[in-house]
Design brief:
Protein name: Heparan sulfate 2-O-sulfotransferase 1
Oligomer: single chain
Helix content: 40-55%
Shape: globular
Distance between the termini: 56 Å
CATH architecture of the largest domain: 3-Layer(aba) Sandwich
GO molecular function, one term: heparan sulfate 2-sulfotransferase activity
Largest sheet: 5 strands, parallel
Main location: Golgi
Keywords: Coiled coil, Disulfide bond, Glycoprotein, Golgi apparatus, Membrane, Signal-anchor, Transferase, Transmembrane, Transmembrane helix
Strand content: 5-15%
Order of helices and strands: EHHEHEHEEHHHHEHHHHHEE
Family: Belongs to the sulfotransferase 3 family.
Number of helices: 13
CATH class of the largest domain: Alpha Beta
Number of domains: 2
CATH superfamily of the largest domain: P-loop containing nucleotide triphosphate hydrolases
Radius of gyration: 25 Å
Mean pLDDT: 83
Strand order of the largest sheet: 3-4-2-5-6
Number of strands: 8
């Protein structure tokens, strides 16, 4: 098993402080050099140290531009740093969503943001049109709750349809479709270790998943696999037509174009690590909390028995499984692509990459 390296927050802060001090010194020196009268040659004893190359001058010019924009009132904070940013996690049932969400709850006080659970009647993932309007208005206008992390079992909602200029940041996690269905099947009958006293609607039914498959039961039918695709497809009627190829393609489109990051249950720690690097305003400390916290692996389904190869093979014969599996593999490939460009592995450890770009050749030159 790979070990994940999480740099201590205190050490990272010290490193940032050293970097800021270094940039201040560069800025001061380069500023004196660049602000000199261009017609007057510098004194013979004045020369730029070797480190003040074109990169240092470019950094100085970027700072000057940023300061000018701030004075002009057009400066906008980076993605994820503004208090106006909202994250929506439209969590798919039985994908380790409770474990991930509890990390957000544990961090919200420390990182200063709000967490809100979207609790829909009878867990219906599709909102009425009037509720869609209310929800969009809440998310965009409820300034007292910003910055915010919303989570709930709701289908993707396209905010641009409602004339919203600044859309929320969507994230999600999905799971192997058969493993998700097996977990949900036993969850309805035996619950989990998160709320063991809560009575589930199938409680008392002792039939195993394999017995359900062999007898052609409805709770384990291939149609029950159709869930992750419609969750990503959204609030179109075709999304909920089981086996719709259009819904699959729309789900893929939304995953790539509307979601900042989609992880997989099987690689949840990698997902959390990348989120912490990309959105530290929300997820600073999340990786370490996941690894060491008591709430990192909540909601283990009770009495769950792995299905036999025969049961799996029977489900895999259906076109519905093939489409849900195609979507899962598509999401997995995209996530692994993002991860490959975000981290590096050395001696079995994963390291988040530092910033790997800078600006140069900035014109027109600052006077």
């Amino acid at each position: 098993m790979r070990r994940f390296v999480c740099v201590c927050v205190r050490e990272r802060e010290r490193e940032r402080e050293r970097e800021r001090e270094r940039e201040k010194r560069e800025h001061k020196t380069v500023s004196r050099f660049l602000s000199a009268d261009p017609l007057t040659p510098p004194p013979l004893f004045v020369c730029l140290p070797p480190r003040f190359t074109e990169r240092a001058i470019a950094r100085h010019e970027v700072r000057e531009i940023e300061q000018r924009h701030t004075q002009d009132g057009v400066h906008e904070p980076p993605l994820g740093e503004s208090d106006d940013v909202v994250i929506i996690y439209n969590r798919v049932p039985k994908t380790a969503s409770t474990s991930f969400t509890n990390i957000a709850y544990d961090l919200c006080g420390k990182n200063k943001y709000h967490v809100l659970h979207i609790n829909t009647t009878k867990n219906n993932p599709v909102m009425s049109l009037q509720d869609q309007v209310r929800f969009v208005r809440n998310v965009t206008s409820w300034t007292e709750m910003k910055p915010a992390f919303y989570h709930g079992h709701v289908a993707f909602l396209d905010f641009s349809k409602f004339g919203v200029k600044r859309k929320p940041i969507y994230i999600n996690v999905i799971r192997d479709p058969i493993e998700r269905l097996v977990s949900y099947y036993y969850f309805l009958r035996f619950g989990d270790d998160y709320r063991p006293g809560l009575r589930r609607r199938k409680q008392g039914d002792k039939k195993t998943f394999d017995e359900c498959v062999s007898s052609g039961g409805s709770d384990c039918a291939a149609e029950k696999l159709w869930l992750q695709i419609p969750f990503f497809c959204g609030h179109y009627s075709e999304c909920w037509n089981v086996g719709s190829r259009w819904a699959l393609e729309q789900a893929k489109y939304n995953l790539v174009n509307e979601y900042l990051l989609v992880g997989v249950t099987e690689e949840l720690e990698d997902f959390i690590m990348i989120l912490e690097a990309a959105l530290p305003r929300y997820f600073r400390g999340a990786t370490e909390l996941y690894r060491t916290g008591k709430k990192s692996h909540l909601r283990k389904t009770s009495e769950k028995k792995p299905p036999t190869k025969e049961s799996i093979a029977k489900l895999q014969q259906s076109d519905i499984w093939k489409m849900e599996s195609e979507f899962y593999e598509f999401a997995l490939e995209q996530f692994q692509f993002v991860r490959a460009h975000a981290v590096r592995e050395k001696d079995g450890d994963l390291y988040i990459l530092a910033q790997n770009y800078f600006y140069e050749k900035i014109y027109p030159k600052m006077n």
